[in-house]
């Protein structure tokens, strides 16, 4: 006889309790059988096996014996519109009881935690099954064993862990596993159990290890492990985090040394064994304290109190099953089983609400939510597949049971957000596509009978119709719908066709039979006709106010009209002809433009006119098109916008065609007559014509009343679309016309491109000839061009000249006076371009550049420090900290006294989170103070707010302090023993503002000198224009030395690096 262990006794008692709970859950007459004179659940033997296995007991089987399995009963049932195969409800019943029986994890706050309540709920659902189907819920002959319990653990990341390496970082990895109670008993006597590690508690083959993340304090793993366990009550999850140590040479460690803490780590590593990993912390969690799905940060616990704060680790847990022994789990995919279970529970919830005469709003009871949540987590179903199952169940049930269609919107939104087609198998894609098509067909059938399905006499009918239309519209917009449904379906067209199909007439139009009786008296027939008209008008008004609004706003099936019925939609008669009319108008206008250019001799057609005859014909064509648009007055806003787009596009095409034709015409006439003067005159006419055409194009928005069109189309077309379609097209045409004008000018002998050579050296030598050329030719241009074109030509020429001269000035240092003369030439004493037009950003930049190029190196250095002083005065932010000083000048002694008081809010530049600051004082520029040496304060160790309180004296004459750029430069460094010092920041104090410099001797009082707080700044990483100019002067040693010093200072800035 086998002796039962204490653990076996507890397991047997727990098995008896499970049997009682399961027995109470079964509905009367279902799922029970008589064993040994008493009632026992069909899983009693399976539960007993499981508990005996946990207790270490094994039943004795006799040789030759074999258990007899009677055949299962099958029944063909159909419930709530879902045809079930034989025995499917029995398998589903088995699946849900199995899910409750082997529940894992702490209940969520909104879930049912009591198993008895869940069994009672299952009993109610099974009792609600029709009698024919309930007959199939017979005692289950199979004995499903318990599944393999699994913990799906994901190690996401960690933060704030200890740095164990010389570099101040670690190479962390994790060891994790599950400790059972049997293993735990071996360590109960160990008083320091918290110091134990995973490899000491768990067998080696059950330990999992993550990858090693090198040199970090915030590692990211995102690795998932499946850990099996037997009993959730006694199992615990263990995770240890270690720093991987690899044997390295002392030279390599010294190369990574950054501070004294790193040196301590080297000595510590020398005392321990080679290759021994350092402990970073651990996490121990009891599985019974976890939820089915758990996602949170956990503190890393120490083994000693030396470093109690060891950071946090982000873990995700999911308690799942593996190798479930139910018939459904063995024969069907998890997704399919979950969908069938969802269908059964949702149909029960819907029928419960209908029995209570309340409309179901899509919210499940907490019992159903709990069962579905447990089943999905135990099956390890993804969120996407759960939403898919919900959509298939709800969309199918909507076609058989009445509930609010807005319940489908949540599934549509979720599928659209998570849609990835590759995650579905082919049969799942076909199933989803069929659900889309089925719901669309069913919805269209409801719309076809909307007067009966959604009568106005029933409350909330309009809301139900509006919700249905919204669901169909959103479904047709889904990416899943477009990818899986290969046929192109136009929902507005389908709705329109459904509404056009003759159906059942609403109650107001059910014309009584007496209206169809033989003609009687004229009075009676008149009354019957009047009654019919009243009913028809009332129904039309009702449709216009209610139904029409829904179909327009939701499905876009119709266009709303506020005009009288007799004249509504009259423009539809001409809709098909409008595109032909527009094309015909474009063709005629284009032919007329071509004939006008062919007949044009490109001569002024009036004494005071500088345009040719073709512009008159083109203006007439445009005026006729504008008049056609005004007379058309198309009532539909969206279609009117499309007509406007076509008109603008055609007019822009005509404009570009005219430019090409008139240029070709000018070339033909010039080649025929071979007269250089007449050719120049024709080119001037061409420029004037294109300019006139440009003015016509600019007037189109006001002539075509675009503002009114935007107001009309505001509800159907976005302003961005109008901007992109109309305004951008017009701007593009204007830009093309400006380009055409420049192309015409390039053909003339006064071309600006021909007057400016491309070579920089030749350009500098050609400035004076260019001015003489302009003086002789601009008079001719002024006579033959309209004033606006002449000013435009001057503007183009000026901008082109500046572009070429700016490019040349970057390669050679020119004379600024020549460019000043060129400016006066274009200004022409007020007769040319105005000064605000001449002084563009390019001109001012060129002028500044030329002034700098003509300055000596020492002046440039002074200018550099003047700019830094101004930047110092404009800086108010103390991003890099600040330094406080007191400065006083004594004229009688010609002595400058500087007291460095303190510095605050410095940036920590050492690995220990602090700095070793000191201040260097120099007088700049160096060429003004060649004999004054730099002074340095003492170094303050491990301080971000150092107190110096040191004074320094400099002997300098007062006139030196008045020089441009003269300043006191205070540079704060972080002292480094093994490398170059790091830059904390620098501050510039202008010597011209030193107290006492301009005061009398008697007024000086050192005690009342104000303190000056200077924010620290860093040199700009992008460099400075003055420094680039100094660097380009290769032969100037002083300039090169200054640039080298400033570059070195920039390299010392870690921000610049």
From TrEMBL:
Region (Disordered): 58-81, 1000-1022
Span of domain MHD2: 764-864
Residue ranges of every copy of the MHD1 domain listed in the record: 534-662
InterPro entries the UniProt entry points to: C2_dom, C2_domain_sf, MUN_dom, Munc13_1, Munc13_dom-2, UNC-13_domain
SUPFAM superfamilies for this protein: C2 domain (Calcium/lipid-binding domain, CaLB)
Protein's cellular compartments: Cytoplasm; Late endosome; Recycling endosome
C2 domain sequence ranges: 129-276, 879-1005
GO terms (BP aspect): exocytosis
Entry GO terms, CC: exocytic vesicle; late endosome; recycling endosome
Name the UniProt record assigns to this protein: Unc-13 homolog D
Taxonomic placement: Eukaryota, Metazoa, Chordata, Craniata, Vertebrata
């Amino acid at each position: 006889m086998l002796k039962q262990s204490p653990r076996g006794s507890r397991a047997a008692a727990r098995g008896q309790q499970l049997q009682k709970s399961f027995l109470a859950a079964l509905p009367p007459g279902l799922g029970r059988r008589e064993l040994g004179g008493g009632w026992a659940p069909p899983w009693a033997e399976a539960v007993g096996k499981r508990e005996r296995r946990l207790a270490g007991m094994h039943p004795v089987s006799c040789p030759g014996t074999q258990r007899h399995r009677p055949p299962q009963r099958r029944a063909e049932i159909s419930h709530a519109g879902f045809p079930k195969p034989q025995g499917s409800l029995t398998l589903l019943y088995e699946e849900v009881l199995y899910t409750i029986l082997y529940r894992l994890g702490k209940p969520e706050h909104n879930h049912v935690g009591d198993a008895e309540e869940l069994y009672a709920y299952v009993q109610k659902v099974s009792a609600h099954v029709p009698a024919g189907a309930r007959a199939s819920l017979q005692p289950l002959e199979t004995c499903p064993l318990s599944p393999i319990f699994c913990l799906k653990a994901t190690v996401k990341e960690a933060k704030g862990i200890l740095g164990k390496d010389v570099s101040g970082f670690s190479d962390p990895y994790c060891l994790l596993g599950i400790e059972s109670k049997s293993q735990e008993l071996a360590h109960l006597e160990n008083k320091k159990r918290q110091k134990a590690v995973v490899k000491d508690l768990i067998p080696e083959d059950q330990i999992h290890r993550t990858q090693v993340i090198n040199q970090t304090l915030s590692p990211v793993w995102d690795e998932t492990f499946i850990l099996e366990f037997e009993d959730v009550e006694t199992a615990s999850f263990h995770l240890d985090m270690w720093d991987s140590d690899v044997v390295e040479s002392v030279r390599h460690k010294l190369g990574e040394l950054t501070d004294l803490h790193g040196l301590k780590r080297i000595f510590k590593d020398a005392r321990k064994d080679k290759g021994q990993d350092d402990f970073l912390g651990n996490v121990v969690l009891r599985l019974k304290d976890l939820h089915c799905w758990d996602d949170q940060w956990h503190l890393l616990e120490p083994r000693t109190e030396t470093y109690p704060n060891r950071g946090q680790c982000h873990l995700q847990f999911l308690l799942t099953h593996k190798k479930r022994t139910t018939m459904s789990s063995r024969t069907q995919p998890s997704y399919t089983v979950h969908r069938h279970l969802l269908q059964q529970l949702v149909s029960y919830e819907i029928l419960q609400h209908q029995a209570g005469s309340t409309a179901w709003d899509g919210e499940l009871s907490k019992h159903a939510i709990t069962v579905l949540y447990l089943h999905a987590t135990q099956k390890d179903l993804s969120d996407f597949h759960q939403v898919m199952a919900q959509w298939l169940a709800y969309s199918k049930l909507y076609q058989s049971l009445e509930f609010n269609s807005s319940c489908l919107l949540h599934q549509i939104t979720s599928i659209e957000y998570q849609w990835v087609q590759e995650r579905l198998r082919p049969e799942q894609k076909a199933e989803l596509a069929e659900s889309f098509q089925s719901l669309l067909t069913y919805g269209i059938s409801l719309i076809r009978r909307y007067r009966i399905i959604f009568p106005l006499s029933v409350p909330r009918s309009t809301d139900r119709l509006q919700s249905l239309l919204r669901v169909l519209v959103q479904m047709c917009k889904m990416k899943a719908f477009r990818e899986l449904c290969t046929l192109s379906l136009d929902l507005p067209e389908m709705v329109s066709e459904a509404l056009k199909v003759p159906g059942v007439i609403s109650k107001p139009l059910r014309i009584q039979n007496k209206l169809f009786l033989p003609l009687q008296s004229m009075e009676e027939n008149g009354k019957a006709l009047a009654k019919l008209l009243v009913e028809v008008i009332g129904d039309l008004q009702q449709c216009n106010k209610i139904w029409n609004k829904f179909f327009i706003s939701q499905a876009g099936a119709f266009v709303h009209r506020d005009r009288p019925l007799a004249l509504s939609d009259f423009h539809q008669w001409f809709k098909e002809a409008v595109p032909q009319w527009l094309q015909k108008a474009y063709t005629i206008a284009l032919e007329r433009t071509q004939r006008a250019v062919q007949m044009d001799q490109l001569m002024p057609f009036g004494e005071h006119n500088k345009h040719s005859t073709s512009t008159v014909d083109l203006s007439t064509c445009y005026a006729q098109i504008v008049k056609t648009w005004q007379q058309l007055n198309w009532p539909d806003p969206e279609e009117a916008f499309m007509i406007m787009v076509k008109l603008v596009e055609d007019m822009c095409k005509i404009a570009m065609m005219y430019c090409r034709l008139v240029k070709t015409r000018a070339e033909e006439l010039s080649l025929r007559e071979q007269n250089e003067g007449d050719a120049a005159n024709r080119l001037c006419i061409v420029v004037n014509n294109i300019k006139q055409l440009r003015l016509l194009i600019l007037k189109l928005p006001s002539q075509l009343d675009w503002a009114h069109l935007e107001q009309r189309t505001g509800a159907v077309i976005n302003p961005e679309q109008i901007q992109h379609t109309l305004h951008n097209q017009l701007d593009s045409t204007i830009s093309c016309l400006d380009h055409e004008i420049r192309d015409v000018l390039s053909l003339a002998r006064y071309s600006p491109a021909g007057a400016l050579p491309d070579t920089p050296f030749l350009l500098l030598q050609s400035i004076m000839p260019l001015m003489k050329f302009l003086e002789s030719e601009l008079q001719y241009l002024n006579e033959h061009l309209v004033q606006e074109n002449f000013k435009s030509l001057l503007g183009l020429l000026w901008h082109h000249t500046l572009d070429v001269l700016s490019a040349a000035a970057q390669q050679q240092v020119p004379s600024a006076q020549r460019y000043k003369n060129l400016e006066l030439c274009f200004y022409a004493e007020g007769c040319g371009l105005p000064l605000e037009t001449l002084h563009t950003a390019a001109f001012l930049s060129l002028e500044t550049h030329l002034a700098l190029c003509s300055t000596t190196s020492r002046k440039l250095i002074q200018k550099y420090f003047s700019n830094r002083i101004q930047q110092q005065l404009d800086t108010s932010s103390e991003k890099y900290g600040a330094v406080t000083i007191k400065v006083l000048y004594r004229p009688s002694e010609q002595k400058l006294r500087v007291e460095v008081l303190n510095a605050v809010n410095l940036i920590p530049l050492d690995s220990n989170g602090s700095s070793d600051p000191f201040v260097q004082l120099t007088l700049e520029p160096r060429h003004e103070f060649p004999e004054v040496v730099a002074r340095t304060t003492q170094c303050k160790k491990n301080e971000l707010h150092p107190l110096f309180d040191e004074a320094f004296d400099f002997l300098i004459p007062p006139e030196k302090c008045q020089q441009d750029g003269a300043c006191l430069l205070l540079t704060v460094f972080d002292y480094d023993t093994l490398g170059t010092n790091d830059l904390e920041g620098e501050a510039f104090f202008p010597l011209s503002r030193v107290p006492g410099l301009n005061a009398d001797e008697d007024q000086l009082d050192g005690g009342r000198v104000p303190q000056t707080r200077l924010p620290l700044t860093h040199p700009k990483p992008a460099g400075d224009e003055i420094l680039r100019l100094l660097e380009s002067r290769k032969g100037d040693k002083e300039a090169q030395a200054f640039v080298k010093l400033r570059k070195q200072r920039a390299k010392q800035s870690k921000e610049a690096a």
